[in-house]
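Worked Example 4.2. Consider the chain below.
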Amino acid sequence: MLEHKFPPIPDSCTSKLGKRITISPNPARSTFAVIGPWTGNGHLSLVDLRGRLLLSKTFTGAEVLTELDPSIPSGVYLVKIQTEDGAVCMAKLVLLSTK
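Applying the procedure from the previous section yields the following structure tokens:
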């Protein structure tokens, strides 16, 4: 049997920011906030572990409040932040069912 080993997903920014981001609450149910070291505008994406885009939004400021569609099932997701200065930040989000 062939096993794939994937590197862990860092909860950090891969740029000159070099600092961690915070997702709260995590696990989340209907909303979550992402707080990071960036300023200005950016883009948030929520993708599942198969790479499917479930949510996409633009934001301004260091705190991004996001409401989730109740049809998104429970599971582990990736939150990706791209800032206007080129920083890319990723973190894991655990989503619990609202039902």
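The beta strands are 12-13, 22-24, 31-35, 41-48, 53-60, 63-67, 75-83, 88-95. The first strand starts at residue 12 and ends at 13. Compare this with Example 4.1 before moving on.
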